[in-house]
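Subject: for your reference before the review

Hello V.,

The reviewers asked for a structural picture of the protein, and I figured it would be easier to keep everything in one thread rather than splitting it across files. Below is the amino acid sequence we used in the manuscript, unchanged from the supplementary table.
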Amino acid sequence: MSDKILLIDDDENWPELVREFLTSHGYELDLAWTSREALELAKTGHYALILLDLKLGHKSGLDIFKMLRLYPATKHVPIFMLTANEDAGAAKYVLSSGNSEFIVKSSNLKLLEVRIAAKLNQARLEKNGDGVLAIGYVTLHPSRLLEISDISAIQLTRTEFSIVRPIMVKRGDIATRQELILKCWRIRQNHDAYPRFDHNLNARIAILHRKLGDFKELIKTVAYDGYRFDTKLSEDLASPKR
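And here is what came back from the structure prediction:
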């Protein structure tokens, strides 16, 4: 089954060129010319990636970007923001939102296809629990090394890795206690031993917080529900002077 892409762009010629090129390379592509079309398709379609023009008629592409990040169907879908010109302010916002890229339009469609293929491959690896997982300035390696910008590198145990990765994959959403216990120890909530592993999870999180030290707030406890990764904090770690 081919990867399905949504292209949101009202340019007169470029979208059709992109559609022709990407479909010839095995992708399935839906094209939306207006913000209304885009949001309707986004709600109903199952897209692997979205290409979104920064300037879309009378509506800013950033406004659509924000709305797409609110929809459950597109909240975690990779988005490439397209622009004819560099826009530092828009680029900073898009890149800080996670799982997004900001690229300048060009006639080099092969380069666009290469970047799409790389992003989709990264998404598949993350979904399967393989490969490098990077959110902001925090990177989790398959070797179980957790890098925090150029400030800190923490070696995780297998169990810690099995806890941290699903929390990060949620990208700010809550990873419930039940799913973490199932992921780490294959114990379901109706199992007799569940209370013991529920307590074990508390102990493991406490150890993780000690290991993270000044960065323990990267993994936030959500009372009675589970844990979530602080994506905003991960974007604020560029400076080693923090």
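For the response letter, the relevant points are probably these. The first strand starts at residue 4 and ends at 8. The mean pLDDT is 85.

Happy to draft the paragraph if you're swamped.

O.
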